[in-house]
Input
Amino acid sequence: MKAHLSLPDIDHPGTKFLHKDGIVRGKGLFHAIEYKPPAETVDEEFSLWLSTGRVFAHYHTGTMTRNSPSLNAEISEGFLEMHPADAGSIGISQGDEVKVESRRGQIIAKTMVTERVKQGLVFMPFHFIENRANILTNPAHDPIAKIPEFKVCAVRVEKAAFPSFSFFNQIGGCPRTGY
Output
């Protein structure tokens, strides 16, 4: 089996593993850069940091992994992780539905009260169309990488006034489940 990698010459047989004989340039090339804060920071109106990310069972928007019964059984819906002190300060308990709002939009999600997140920080996975986390995030772009700042923004959280309200209630049901 030949690898499809850069080879020293056209007749080289290839190797099964990249860097079999060591890494030519060393173990890594790192550059220290000056810290630049996010484009948006917390304030009195939006006092919590929202960080978005992945969960182990799903990939990107979940279009494939959420169609897998075994993966979807692991984590079947979006959620908001919130520190117990933050949850307690606004009367939120495990499993309560909350409204998460940023300067760009709002969504409804169930809470997972946990010490996995630090006080002042909430976390939400972005795999779930029912809880579209990225409508909350900031589209500001990094000046060097030219990628949007989807990982962090300022939000506020409150108990949902209409717990059964969701994005799909607005459009007449979820195309995947029919609910």
Summary: Helices lie at 69-74, 84-89, 167-171. Confidence is low (pLDDT under 50) at residues 165-179. The domain at 48-160 is CATH 2.40.40.20 (Barwin-like endoglucanases).
